[in-house]
Amino acid sequence: MNSPNLLDKIYHVIIKRLVGTGQAPHYTEIARELGSSVEEARKALHNLMAAGVPGTWLFPDTDYISSFAPFSNLPTQYRITIEGEQKWFGQ
Fold first, then answer.
1. What CATH fold (topology level) applies to the domain 4-90?
2. What's the pTM?
């Protein structure tokens, strides 16, 4: 299940959600987007994070996306505002 094509799709789902809402998806939402099982999506998310994509990591000892370059899923002092709307945080 963890082909490069799948990891590309997961990357796209995460970035699309971060850009659209300012929040990273949970792996259950990734599973729904991809039409896969929840456990397959969770494992694939961990494999994506272990692949060495710079600036991406999970919150320690969890399945929650903490940072996904160039965005932070946790509030930081780096606020990103576009057209007067601030819903993103940078790394």
1. Arc Repressor Mutant, subunit A (1.10.10)
2. 0.89
